[in-house]
Amino acid sequence: MLKSFSGRLLILTTIFVMLAEVLIFVPTIARFREEYLMNRLERAQIASLTLLANDMIDPALEAELLRTAEVFNVVLRRDEVRQLVLSSPMPQSIINTYDLRDSAPLILIKDAFMQLADTRDGVIRVIGAPVQDAGSSIEITMQTVPLRDAMIDYGLRILLLSAVISIITASLLFVALRVLLLKPIKGVVGHMQNYALAPEDARRIITPSAGVTEVREAEEALMKLETDLTQALRQKERLAQLGQAVSKVSHDLRNILTTAQLFTDRIEMSEDPSVKRMAPKLVSSITRAVHLCESTLAFGKAEEPSPTLTVTALDHIVQDVVDSERLATDGAAINFVLDVPANLKVRADPEHLFRVLSNLVRNARQAIAATGQGGEIRLTAKDRPDYWVIDVQDDGPGLPPKAQEHLFTAFRGGARKGGSGLGLAIAAELVRGHGGTLELKETGTSGTVFRISLPKGDGTF
Predict the structure, then answer these.
(1) Quick one: which of 193, 188, 189, 232 has its CA closest to 207?
(2) Where does this protein have coiled-coil stretches (predicted)?
(3) Which residue range forms the structural domain that includes residue 390?
(4) How many CA atoms lie within 13 A of 72 on its CB side?
């Protein structure tokens, strides 16, 4: 029980209520003592009225009056004269005097606890104001033992009542929390356990139903988490199936491209000037396609192969990318602007960097072509102290919000209709393989800018 939330809550509630009752007990016991002494003063004043009515009373009657008032002596101060009204022998001497006429609360509390701590059987003098203006003051002497016993009895009754109140309060709070909070929480835990048995089953996703706001918020957050996880698991399964299919296609496509590569070797031997000018581009494109198929097959087995970092001229790679994309413009008025220093060299895998830039430029070209108007694609490179920066900028329509939300997630970040979103996911993975980053710097109606940052590492070539 001590390990459960409800059991600990029950115990803590009982302790806190008892603590509150103890704090209440402190002024209460002081108030009880004050009322006890005031009661004895009133009794003594009533007993003294008999003598005031008749100057001579029988000694036996006087003793009976004092015994009833539970005091030894009664002194009245009237007209600045102290008068011993009733008296009897005192068994002990007076050990303390208490004046109740102007006692502050803190003094009353201190006197009460000193009274409880003092176990001596003594006599105290108590001074108070008589009722009905029967004089300026009244004094009595009385024993301390009956007062202390009464205070202890009252304190025990208060503590017993406090314990009963604490247990009842804690029990009610325990039941209320079990019904309003713990039961819904256990329901959420049960849903989580049930969902864990088959996370691919969308029927097991929790439906928020709690009436408590905080628990309902937890259920809604859990529902979103489970929904995303179920979709991710389904996506993973589809990707696994797709990976197998792509591997098979890539295998056959590699064989076809290898055959085509043999034909291009013969085309290079042609004396036709146009053929001789276009042949190197064709050979380069087919070679890259063969390498891509081989990489795809490797990816199907494990993951994207690690980059082979070499020092390479960036402007050559950029020029190859632009030349390839120019052939695919289909007559669209797209202008390519290159701002890449001729002597700028970067440490990167040339094939990987070509694929990254090709994906980014192709996306920019397709975005501009979709508008039916012309546009500009600008590639800029800068050499900074710790890294190289390559920006791919276009003046297209910008990325829609949905595409920005899952920009680098395969099959979820497609920006155009029919797009798979693989291009940016592949590009981001390839850049991460270099230890760099691919980020969307800005997008809007004025265009989009992607930035590639490649670290220099130790900076040695």
Answers:
(1) 188
(2) 215-242
(3) 306-455
(4) 16
Rounded CA-CA distance 379/182 in Å is 60
- Other residues' Cβ atoms within 10 Å of the Cβ of residue 10: 21
**Does residue 126 lie in a domain region?**
yes
Residues 162 and 310 in one domain: no
Q: Is residue 87 part of a domain?
A: yes
The pLDDT profile of the chain, 461 residues, written as one tens digit per residue, is: 556 666 777 777 778 777 877 788 888 888 998 898 888 888 887 777 766 555 556 677 667 777 777 788 888 777 666 777 777 887 778 888 888 887 788 888 888 888 888 888 888 888 888 876 666 788 888 888 888 999 999 888 888 887 788 778 778 877 887 777 777 888 888 888 888 888 877 778 888 887 778 778 888 888 888 888 888 877 777 767 666 666 556 655 655 565 565 566 666 666 677 666 666 767 677 776 766 666 655 555 545 567 888 999 999 999 988 988 887 776 668 899 999 999 899 999 998 999 899 889 988 988 888 888 889 999 999 999 999 999 999 998 888 887 787 787 765 545 554 444 567 888 888 899 899 999 999 998 889 999 999 998 754 43
Report how far apart, in Å, the C-alpha atoms of 228 and of each of 196, 223, 235, 384 are: 14, 9, 10, 40
